[in-house]
Write a structure and sequence with these properties.
InterPro entries: IF_rod_dom, Lamin_tail_dom, Lamin_tail_dom_sf, Lamin_tail_domain. This protein is an alpha+beta fold. It has five domains: about 1-165, no CATH class; about 240-370; about 415-445; about 505-570, no CATH class; about 590-715, Immunoglobulin-like (Sandwich). It is about 65% helix and about 10% strand. It is built from eleven helices and twelve strands. The strands form three sheets. Strands 3, 4, 7, 8, 11 and 12 form a six-stranded mixed sheet that branches. It has a four-stranded antiparallel sheet with strand order 6-5-9-10, covered by helices on one side. A two-stranded antiparallel sheet has the order 1-2. Helix 3 packs antiparallel against helix 6. The model is unreliable at about 1-15, about 25-105, about 115-120, about 490-495, about 535-580 and about 705-715 (pLDDT under 50).
Length: about 725
């Protein structure tokens, strides 16, 4: 409606200009009529007519047209005068008079001399009319040019209106599309916000899970540290007890040595006194006895010096132990003070003995003849005491060697535990660093991302990486648990094993029962086969057939019967193995093979068919040519072996992870077989301290000879 109104308003100036042209033509026609033809119009009392003002972009400007009516007194003629104002030298507007009477040209208004002309038919009037025609023709030409300009402007306006309408339609369409797009974008934003909230909740859940796992790891680490600390405290207590016992024994032995020294000095005084007062023969005898006792005194002095050196050695060892444990400082200081006090007492006793010797020299010589027999008895008892002391010293040295071996084992285990702790600390530190880096990366990515699609993709990638890390952490925990389990299997039997081993034993109890039944059947068949082999070769085949027939008839139905039958046949058809090649000696353990090149020790265990033989608490000791020793003890809980079994001890390597091992043990001590190997002694010690010894040759391989039979076996 607005566009139609605009078009009507814009078309009105053209119509007014056409009406004006028609009026001007009619006016020229009326001027050629006689004078008396008059144009009459209805009178209107000063009613101004206003024209529609039109605006154009280039040439048309605002114009105001005023129409005035003037009436003459004689003929009542209404005259209209138009005045137009033009700015900037262009036609700005056109007049549209109210068509009520035929207008006349108001020339007399501008030329006052024309108003005095008498009649219209005068020649001045005709000239005036001619001028008016010229003016009208000029006005017509101007109006035509103005009309052309108006038409061109109107066409341009119509074009612009059409363009405006097209643009308006396009804008409305684009606005609708933008509104639809904005609605879609708002929906997408809502969906993405929901997805983002879900992802953030998932991320928080994952972070909580990681925190819980970290707390579990920390708890496990604290438990392991407590266990290690308890084991270390136990080892320190055992070491302190052993050292205190040794020190007490050393003090007692020193006291006995001091008593013997005092007795020797007393005897020396007797001899010297009798030598002075007696005859020459007795003097010679006493001199010989004196020299002999002097040699013994020197020996005892050497023993004292060696004991002093041992005391110094113990002091040095105590000082070294003082660096490793703070709890031993007070005890070591007390022991050092006791040793110094004893040394002072020894010196005081020596001084007092020397004084007493000077005082009692005369008295002792008088009693010499009476005590010669007693002296001989004392010498004999002294020799016996000497032998007893030597045996005690040997036992003490053996105990010290065992303690050193145990200390080496404990040090190896402590080193392994420290390595495991460092590995766990490193893994926990790396995980913490990775978590912090992932958090930083996630923050940067959340800040740098501009589109929600990219955020979702990155969050999914982060979740996948966290899942992978969780999986890797779980595998790492399983691996560390298996390593701890393998380490606990190698711990000294005096230290109690973890409860996990008992639970694992309960889990595999059913499997062990089936395995024991199968081994029992096989061992019976082997025993029967060995007995038959000693009698006759033909009897062996008959025994095999009978044993296989009995096992097939008495075995269970299904797959278990077929497998046991096959196992029995296989065991009966292998007479050349290491278990069948030697005679069966129940309740014995012997060396079968010692190979220093491939680093393993193979033992042959002969267990009773009823109760079996367990090698728990048995020990292996390797003595190098330079005197250094290393020991390995079999752990508790080893099932008894029935029949002839081969047990292998691998040295210098840890227990393999994820692979079951049967009758195999692992001694993690490294550099056990370093050159030179020749002369290395390998000892097998039973719980009752019975020892079997093997010496390695130059090639480092010892193999039990086939004819030896029982030469290296330890009979229980």
């Amino acid at each position: 409606m607005d566009m139609s109104k605009k078009k009507s308003k814009r078309a009105s100036p053209i119509e007014s200009s056409q009406e004006e042209i028609a009026i001007s033509t009619s006016k020229t026609a009326t001027t050629e009529k006689p004078k008396k033809t008059k144009t009459t119009t209805k009178k209107k009392a000063s009613q101004p007519s206003q024209e529609v003002v039109m605006e154009t972009e280039s040439e048309v400007e605002i114009t105001t047209t005023t129409t005035s009516t003037s009436t003459t007194n004689n003929n009542n003629i209404t005259t209209t005068s138009t005045s137009s104002q033009q700015s900037n030298g262009t036609l700005s507007s056109s007049s549209s008079p109210t068509i009520q009477s035929i207008p006349t040209t108001p020339i007399s208004k501008y030329i006052p001399s024309l108003s005095q002309i008498g009649t219209p038919l005068s020649p001045n009037r005709a000239a005036q009319r001619l001028r008016e025609k010229d003016e009208l023709s000029l006005i017509h030409n101007r109006l035509k040019s103005a009309l052309k300009k108006l038409e061109s402007a109107e066409t341009e306006l119509e074009k612009k209106n059409q363009e405006y309408e097209e643009l308006d339609q396009k804008h409305t369409a684009t606005i609708k599309q933008l509104k639809q797009r904005s609605d879609q974008v708002e929906k997408q934003l809502i969906e993405e916000q929901n997805q983002n909230s879900d992802l953030t909740s998932n991320r928080n859940i994952l972070e909580n899970e990681l925190k819980s796992k970290e707390s579990v790891w920390k708890k496990e680490k604290d438990e392991i540290l407590l266990k290690f600390q308890e084991s270390i405290n136990k080892l320190n207590q055992e070491n302190s007890l052993a050292q205190s016992q040794l020190k007490s024994e050393i003090v007692s032995k020193e006291y006995e040595i001091d008593g013997l020294k005092s007795e020797i000095n007393r005897l020396k005084d007797d001899l010297q006194y009798r030598i002075r007062e007696g005859e020459e023969k007795s003097r010679k005898l006493l001199e010989n006895e004196y020299n002999r006792f002097k040699g013994k005194e020197e020996e005892y002095n050497q023993l004292i010096v060696s004991k002093d050196e041992e005391i110094k050695k113990y002091k040095f060892e105590l000082k070294e132990k003082e660096k490793s444990s703070n709890a031993m400082n007070k005890k070591e200081n007390e022991l050092n003070n006791l040793i110094q006090a004893h040394e002072r007492q020894i010196e005081d006793m020596r001084d007092s003995i020397n004084r007493e010797w000077e005082l009692k020299a005369a008295q002792m010589m008088e009693e010499h003849h009476a005590r010669t027999i007693h002296l001989q008895q004392a010498v004999d008892s002294f020799n016996e005491e000497k032998e007893r002391i030597k045996s005690q010293m040997e036992t003490l040295n053996g105990q010290i060697e065992d303690i050193n071996i145990k200390n080496n084992e404990y040090e190896d285990r402590i080193k392994e535990m420290n390595v495991l702790l460092s590995q766990k600390d490193n893994s926990i530190g790396e995980l913490g660093v990775e978590i912090e880096e992932s958090k930083k990366k996630m923050r940067k990515q959340m800040a740098d991302l501009k589109s929600k699609d990219g955020q979702i993709a990155l969050l999914q990638i982060e979740i996948n990486t966290k899942d992978n890390k969780c999986n890797t952490l779980q595998t790492e925990t399983n691996r560390l648990k298996s390593e701890l389990y393998s380490i606990t299997n190698q711990i000294d039997p005096e230290i109690p094993l973890d409860p996990e081993i008992n639970s694992l034993k309960e889990l595999v109890k059913g499997f062990e029962k089936t395995v024991d039944d199968r081994k029992r059947k096989r061992s019976k068949l082997q025993h029967e086969f060995n007995a038959a082999a000693n009698q006759d070769q033909n009897g062996m085949t008959i025994e095999e057939q009978s044993s296989t027939s009995t096992t097939t008839t008495t075995s269970a139905t299904g797959s278990s019967s077929s497998t046991s039958h096959l196992d029995n046949i296989d065991s009966s058809k292998l007479p050349t193995g290491p278990e069948q090649s030697e005679l069966f000696n129940p309740d014995t353990v012997s060396f079968s093979l010692v190979d220093s090149n491939q680093e393993f020790i193979k033992l042959s265990v002969h267990g009773d068919m009823d109760n079996g033989l367990s090698i728990s608490k048995w020990r292996l000791i390797v003595v190098k040519p330079d005197g250094s020793k290393s020991g390995f003890s079999f752990p508790d809980g080893i099932q008894p072996f029935k029949g002839i079994k081969s047990v292998t001890v691998w040295t210098g390597r840890p227990r393999p992870q994820g692979t079951p091992t049967e009758n195999e043990f692992y001694w993690a001590r490294t550099e056990l077989w370093t050159s030179p190997v020749e002369g290395t002694i390998v000892k097998l010690v039973s719980p009752s301290e019975e020892t079997t010894t093997v010496t390695l040759p130059a090639d480092g391989i010892y193999q039990k000879p086939s004819s030896a039979g029982k030469s290296n076996c330890l009979i229980m």
